[in-house]
Specification:
The chain has 870 residues and is of the alpha+beta class. Helices cover 27% and strands 23% of the residues. The strands form nine sheets. It has a six-stranded mixed β-sheet with strand order 7-8-6-9-10-11, sandwiched between helices. The relative contact order is 0.05.
Length: 870
Amino acid sequence: MAKNLKLTIKNTQLAEALKLSRPKKPAAAKAKQAKKPDSESSEEVLAAPVTEGKVKETEVKPAPPLKKEAPSEVVAREESSPVSKAPSAVTPVSTAKPAIPPESGGATSAITPAAHAAERKPLEPLLSTPAPAKPAPGTAPSPALNGGYPRRPAPSPLGPPSSGGPPLGRPSRYPSPFSSLPSARPQQASRGPFTPPKPGVAPLAKPAAAGTHDLLTEAPRKTPPAKDFRDLKTVKKPPTRAFDSRDRQGLRDSESEQWRKRRPAYKARPVMKEEVVRPKELSLRLPITIKDLAAAMKLKASELVAKLFMKGVTLTLNDYLDDETTIQLLGQDFDCAITIDTSEEERLRITDKTIKQEIQETPAEHLQLRPPVIAFMGHVDHGKTSLIDSIRKSNRASGEAGAITQHIGAFCCSTPVGNITILDTPGHEAFSSMRERGADVTDIVVLVVAGDEGIRAQTLEAIEQAKAAHVPILVAINKMDKPGFDAETIYRQLSEQELLPEAWGGTTITVNCSAITGSGISTLLEMLALQAEVLELRANPSTRARGAVIESEMHKGLGAQTTILVQNGSLHIGDALVFDQHWGRIKTMHDEYGKELTLAGPSTPVKITGLSGLPEAGSEFIVVKSEREARELGEGRTLGQRSILLQQPKRTGLENLLQQKAEMIVHKTLNLILRADVQGSLEALKNSLLKIESQKVSLNIISSTVGEISESDIQLAAASKATVIGFHTEVESRADSLIKEYKVVVKLHDIIYHAVDDVRALMVSLLDKIVQENDAGTAEVKAVFKSSQLGLIAGCQVTQGTIRRNQHVRIIREGNLVWKGPISSLKRVKEDVREVSKGMECGILLQNFRDIKEGDIIQAFDITYLEQEL
C-alpha cells in the first residue's frame, strides 16, 4: 500500500507540472478574472486544500492575525503568479520572506531573483515550465513569489480544520520547486457544516480516488474488485541456514555465503538400457580371478560368489580359480560353455614330452650309444669318494673338509670297459636333496656299504630314493680289507630291504671291493658295463640339447656358474638356454678339469656361464632358437610363478589368532643370514637348521644366498641384529672393517654338522639361565649392636653349616621371609673373616638392611646358574 501511495503522489505531481506548462489564456479571460470581487479571491485562498500531514498538538503555535489586502494587490498578485492561472485549486502561499543570515554585518537581506535562478537551474529541465515574467518597473514583486519564483506555501493562518492551526515543521532554507503544486494526497473531509459554493466561483478540485483515473491521460479505468484475504499469496521468506560446525569453528564467511536461490533440480537424461548379450561360449586361461571371470561372462561378480557359496566354496572378489571342473560347472549354471585355453602354457612349457619320451620317439637311425651315468650313494664315511678316486686315479677325498663329501660332483671317466659319467653324492643326512637329485638323473645307482658297519640310516634313504626313481641298484660292499668285514650280514640286511643278492639267488648284483687296495674295482666296472649294455642307453646327438642342473654357484669373476648334465642332444657355445625362471646364452663352457669345450654331447657334465641368475639345482634346461625367445619365456614363467603365489590360501582370523598366541609364547628369536658356496650346500644347510625343534626359541632365516659375505650382508645383520653363518665361503676384504665397526657376529664353517651345532648353541645362549639356590648355613641373631658409622650389626651364633662372606642370606622372622640380599661384612671379635663354622659366634653386617631384630634367623645360600635346554 505504501508503494502504491508513493506512485500515486508522483503521478499527481507530474500531472500538475504538465498543466502548468500549458500556454497562457488570452487577455480577455485575464480581464474577466480580474473583475472578481476581493471577497471571492480571499475565499478561494482560504478554501484551498491543505496538504495532509501529521501535526503534534503540543507543538501548535497560535496563528498570527490576518492582514487584509486591497483588491488591487490581490489582482496584481493573481496576474503575476503562474499558480493563479492553473485550473486547479489555489494553494495558499506564505507572504513572509525567509531570512538568510548575511555574510557580514549581521543584517538580514532578501534572496535576489538571480540567486534563486542559479540554484533552480538544474531543476528547470525536469519541470519543463516557462520562466515567470518579470514585474513591471515601479511595481513591487508579489509577496507570494519572492522575486518572481514560486515559494513553499505557507501554512494557513487558520490551520487545518482538525488541528485549528498551521502544521508544524522545520522551514527549508530553499523553497522546493514543487511547492506551488497542489498536494497529491487526498484531502480529509471537513467536519464543519457544508458551505455551498458561491455563484460564479469554480468549485475546488477534489483529489481523484485511487483506481478511477489515469493521472497522465485523464482516462477513466476500471476499479479492480476487492480481493479476498484467501486470495492473497504468502511471500516466501528465504530459507534460514542452520548453525553448524563451520560456524562454531569460525570457518564460514557470511559475506561469501549469502543466501542464493536454489538451483532447479538436475534432471538426468533418460539412459537407454542396453540389452546385455551374454556369451554362450568362452575360452579362458587359468588361473583367473572371479572378477575377470564375471567380466568375461557379462555377469556381476556377486552372482558368481553367491553361486560358489551355494556349492560350498567361500571365495572373494580377487581370489583365483585354477580348477577346470569348477569353472566349467559355473559356466553350465549360466548357460555358457567354457573351454580352457592352454596355448600360453604350452608355449611357456615349450614341450610336454620328457627326455625319455623324446628319445623313444626318435627314429632308431638317429640314436647312438651314450656313456652311462652312475651315481655312488650310501652312508657317510662308507668310502664312496675313495672308490671314485680309485676308478679315476684321483685324490678328491683328501681335499674334502672333515674327510666327508659335502658337494655333489660330476666327472667323465675313461675305463677299460668304456667311458662312464660318475656322480658323487654326499652321505650326510643333511644332503638328502642332493642324493635325490642324483637318483633322478642317473642310469645306475651304486649303493656303497661298509662291510664292517653294515646298512645305516642314509643307506636306507638312498635305497628308497633309487626305488622311487626306478633306477637299478648295484651294491658295492667296501672295506673288504678290514678285519670286521662280514658279507653275510650285508646280504641279510639287503634281503630285508627287498634287495635279494645274487649269492642268495636274487637279482641284485653285489661286488666285494676295497678302495684302499683296489681289489674288486675291475669286477665292479665290468658289472657296470654289463648293466649299461642291458639297459641299451641311447640318445640323439643331432637334436637340441636338454638336461638337468647338477649344481650352481656364484663365481667372483664369471658371475653365475652352473654345472649341468646333457642328457639328450648336443650343446654348443652361444646356444640360448631356458631354465625354470632364468635364461641365458652360453659364453664359456668347461669340463671338470677346467678345459674349455665347444661341444658337449649326451651324458657330458659341463660348467657354463652367461646366465641371468642362479637356477635351482635339479631344474631342467632346454635350448631355444634365440636369446630373445629365451628372455620372453623366462619372464613369462616368472609371472606365472607370481600368480601361483597369489593363489595360496589366506589364513583365517582363528589361524591368525593362534599364530599370534604361539608367537607370544615363543618370545625368543634368533635371526640368521646364511651364505654358502653352492646352491645345493645352501639348501642342505637351510633344511638342517630348520629341523632344529624348540618351543622356547624360534629360528628366523632373514636371507640365504650363494656367494661370499659382502658389505650388504653385514649391514643387514647390523640392522636386524642377526648372526651371519658362512658355509664353505669367505668374507670380502671390504666387509672386514664393517664387521668390527658394527660388531656383527660372523661364523664360518666347512663341515655342515659343525654349523648346525653352532647354531644350536646360539639358540641356547638366548635363553635366560635358571637361578638355583643351595643352602650353606644357618645363624640365629642373639643381639643387635648399633654403630654410628655402619648401622645395625647382628650378633649371631652359627647353628648349622658354614656362613661365608660372599654368600647371600635370607632373613626369616616368625616363619616369614623378610629380606633377601648379600652380606656386606663378616667379623669375629674385631677381625674380618671369610667364613664362620657351626657353633661359633660372629657379627654380620647386611647390605642395605636396617631392620634386623633379635630372634631372627639368617639362612646363607650359594647361587648357581643353570642353562636351559631347547
